[in-house]
Amino acid sequence: MDVAYWIVAALLAAFYLYAGGIKILQSQERLQPMMGWVDRVPMPVVRLIGTLEVLGAAGLILPPLTGIAPGLAVAAATGLVLIQVGGIAVHVSRGETRTIGLNIVLLVAAVAAVWLGTTWL
What is the domain partition of the chain in residue ranges? Predict the structure, then answer.
């Protein structure tokens, strides 16, 4: 099951490193075609979400890899669960219920990382 954690954590970390990175680095105009919700959310909040995603990605990988406070990986995965719950809420409030498939997949993967982390780390 340790291998299962690393597979889930690596996939989540890669996704969130990319998604968070573009939220941090790109302008609102460049994000708009990919993420329609950025027009209703202030850019400092978008940047904060991106920063939290990048920190979550690091938190999934670095603590278990170094052996320093591996329990932080569970906290990082829990934070990513909360980010997806918020993302689903934003999409539903905008009437975009058909676009929450990726959010649900990421939510399930983050919940799996929490479970695997509490069970095997």
Answer: 2-120
